């Protein structure tokens, strides 16, 4: 009844797979964009034809014969077609590459954290050692001057050796 009296017809509803269609279109768009970039990088098919490597650009690999030689002594060459690189396989490769980079970053972060912890432990140990040495007191409660002088001597020697 609503469709009989309305001026504007109601468009049919899209299926439930609209998001999948958009995703497929986006993947195809990215794939075509990447192909165009590669063509521009290689200089197009005209440059490949001029060099005589058109078969290689179209996805063919060069294979030499299996020991059979022609009468002239030249090796026979055959072309075998490479499997096409699909958008899915390209995405898989990118994912693996990103995973490897992520693992590398995590390992580096863990290494930096371990180094920082070791440096902090070393620093705290040195501070504690210095505290114990300089904190010693004699019977009257005064600091032991031999420890103070030894500490200053070590400090001066360390500075002299570093410069």
Helix proportion range: 55-70%
Strand order of the main beta sheet, please?
1-2
> What is the rounded distance between the termini?
96 Å
Radius of gyration: 37 Å
Structural class: mainly alpha
Draw up the topology in text.
Blueprint: H1 2-5, H2 18-42, H3 44-51, H4 54-57, E1 60-69, E2 75-81, H5 87-134, H6 145-162
Antiparallel strand pairs: 1-2
Structure in words:
The chain has a domain at 86-162. With 163 residues, the chain is mainly α. A hairpin with a 5-residue loop joins strand 1 and strand 2. A two-stranded antiparallel sheet has the order 1-2. The model is unreliable at 47-57 (pLDDT under 50). It has helices spanning 2-5, 18-42, 44-51, 54-57, 87-134, 145-162, and strands spanning 60-69, 75-81. Helix 2 (18-42) packs across helix 3 (44-51).
Report a brief summary of the structure:
This is rRNA-processing protein FYV7. It contains 6 helices and 2 strands. The protein has 163 residues and is mainly alpha-helical.
